[in-house]
Amino acid sequence: MNSVGRPPELDSHGKVVQKSLVNVTIPTKLANFLKEKGINRSQLFTSVVKRMYRDEICRFCYGSNIEESRIGKYCTDCELARPTENPYTVYNNCKNCGNKYQPPYTFFRQSKKIDSGCDDCVPKEERL
Ligand SMILES: [Zn+2]
Ligand SMILES: [Zn+2]
Hints:
Layout: H1 28-37, H2 41-52, E1 66-68, E2 72-75, H3 76-81, E3 88-91
Antiparallel strand pairs: 1-2, 2-3
The structure holds zinc ion (2 copies).
């Protein structure tokens, strides 16, 4: 079911994301709060589920083919469908310095001294 006037959401393969109607029962005060704030419950619910389960569900295609690398967790379907874009849903911390990998720094870095670092802890001139 498409919302009026809104283009349909597409997944990374360019297919329309199929949607389902779900009913949820929540405290009336919470329902009133959402109504007063004009919060779109479908968007809110989708966003909350995506955030809570971001290490299990892809934020782009809602698929569950998630794998882990040194950098973090990523969707293998989206990696194939959009090879030039960042497929990560969760970022790990660098094993060397503890800083979080995050866009645009989504590659691990190596030097002669550091086996698995990041842009922060492996200076450009020492990178292998
Ligand atoms: Zn995906
Ligand atoms: Zn680092």
